[in-house]
Amino acid sequence: MIMSKNKKFRFLGDMAYFSHSKSLYDTKEEKLVYKYIKNHFDGNVICPNKHLGELTYKGDYAKIASKADYVFVWGDSNHSELTRGCYEEVETAMHEGAKVILIEVNGGDVYLRNIVSLEMYDKPNHFEYGWVESVSIEL
Predict the structure, then answer these.
(1) 3 state SS for 25-40
(2) Which residues contact 3 (CB under 8 A, 6 or more apart)?
(3) Predicted confidence pLDDT, tens digits, the chain (139 residues)
(4) What is the signed CA dihedral for 107, 110, 115, 120, rounded to 10 degrees?
(5) How many CA atoms lie less than 13 Å away from 35 in the CB half-sphere?
C-alpha cells in the first residue's frame, strides 16, 4: 500500500477507478464516497457514472479499471458481495497488479479494507456474482 506519510493520508498514483453497482448511481452515498476518494488520492479518479456513461461493451469498464493504480470498490450491499460488473472490474484489475480496496459506508463514515482474495459464487447471478475477503486498513 503506497500512501504518503503526512498527517492527512493520501494514496499515491496517477489514476484510481471507483467501481460500484449501478444501483448506487446518483445517490448521496455515491457522492460521499467519490468525494472521499478524491480527497485521499493524488491522481485522477474515474467514476463510471460521472466520466464514462453507458459503454456498448460492458467489458470495457474492466479494461479501464485494469489501467488504474487503485480500484476502490463499493458493493451494492455495503459489504463484500459484488455484482457481476464490479466482480469483473476487480478481477481484471487484480490480474493487472492494481491495488484493490473495498469501501464500506456507515452513516457518514467511510472505511477502507484491503482486498486479499476474490471468489465467485457456485451459482452466480448478475447481482450476487461473487465476494471478496478483506482486511481492515489502519490509517
Answers:
(1) CCCHHHHHHHHHHHHH
(2) 9, 10, 11, 12
(3) 444 444 467 777 889 999 988 788 788 888 899 999 999 888 899 887 776 656 555 778 788 889 999 999 986 555 688 989 899 999 999 999 999 999 888 888 888 889 999 999 999 887 889 989 888 887 6
(4) 30
(5) 10
pLDDT of residue 105: 85
Grid-cell match 472521499, residue found = 36
pTM of the model: 0.85
What is the helix (H) or strand (E) element at residue 92, kind and residue range?
helix 84-95
Phi and psi (nearest 5°) for 116?
-110, -20
The H or E element containing residue 84 is helix 84-95
What DSSP letter does each residue of 14-72 carry, written as one string? SEEEEEE-GGGTTSHHHHHHHHHHHHHBSSEEE-IIIII---SSTHHHHHHHTT-SEEE
Q: How far apart are alpha carbons 112 and 9 in whole angstroms? A: 12
CA distance 30 to 74: 9
Q: Which three cell numbers stand for residue 95?
A: 490480474
